[in-house]
Write a structure and sequence with these properties.
The chain is of the alpha/beta class. The protein is globular.
Length: 250
């Protein structure tokens, strides 16, 4: 069955939120200390670590598999020391030139996202002739860079970067062409949760609950297309949707 990554954005209640998501069926908790949404302002490495490390330590101490969502090599290393098993870098190692070598030394797995630049101006780079093929080609380059840095293929996950440097239409096209990314070989992580492009189907005024339902549907379709894991806010709804898919497929 497709794995579920539960999203935990650090707040004073992050530990209890993480425990709840785990109880709801999350296989991995993805802990992030800064937003990567379009237009987001970066925080300092020190502030990022202040936010995420205590949460990672507490969740890992409970035996919960944890990923750290970071663009910074120093935070990745500190998070693995605190108990994280996976580094989730939405930039695929491009934001911090030290990232791949640093993760190689930790022994952790790494999720490499498709990325064409920082959140502040990502849409300026949203030009594709065939988005699935181009995303797969650029991810292959990141996989090769990770291998050159000493990260074994078994430790690599790829993420097509839904919502990053892609228009709404390009995101839908990318999901329809997910087979291009799956064909690369590494495990594939897909994150559509509550992203802006869902408004293309639902309408701009869709409330959170409707976006979570749409996320569950896209997660099921991604699983059907070969995704190894999906990254979501609503773990319980996604778990139920995937269970229905499993029953349907027998």
């Amino acid at each position: 069955m497709t794995a579920i990554w539960g999203i935990v954005n650090t707040t004073p209640d992050s530990f209890s939120d993480g425990v709840l998501l785990r109880a709801q069926g999350a296989d991995v908790l993805d802990i992030g200390g800064e937003s990567t949404r379009p237009g987001a302002v970066r925080v300092s490495v020190a502030e990022e670590q202040r936010r995420v490390l205590p949460v990672i330590e507490r969740l890992a101490a409970e035996g919960i598999p944890v990923s750290v969502d970071t663009l910074n090599a120093a935070t990745a290393v500190a998070a693995v020391r605190a108990g994280a098993r996976i580094v989730n870098d939405v930039s695929g190692g491009l934001a911090d030139p030290e990232m791949l070598a640093a993760v190689a030394e930790t022994g952790a797995d790494i999720a490499l996202g498709h990325w064409r630049g920082p959140s502040s101006d990502m849409y300026a780079r949203a030009e594709y002739s065939r988005v699935g093929r181009e995303v797969a080609t650029e991810l292959r380059e990141r996989v090769e860079a990770a291998a050159s840095a000493g990260i074994a293929p078994s430790r690599i996950i790829v993420d097509p970067g839904v919502g990053f440097a892609k228009t709404a239409g390009q995101n839908w096209e990318l999901l329809r062409e997910l087979a291009d990314v799956v064909a690369l070989g590494p495990r594939v992580l897909v994150g559509t949760s509550r992203k802006r492009f869902l408004a293309d189907a639902l309408g701009a005024d869709a409330e959170e609950a409707r976006k979570d339902l749409a996320t569950a549907v896209t997660s099921v379709l991604a699983a059907r297309a070969g995704a190894w894991a999906v990254r979501v806010h609503d773990v319980a709804g996604t778990r139920d949707a995937l269970a229905v898919l499993g029953a349907w497929d027998g």
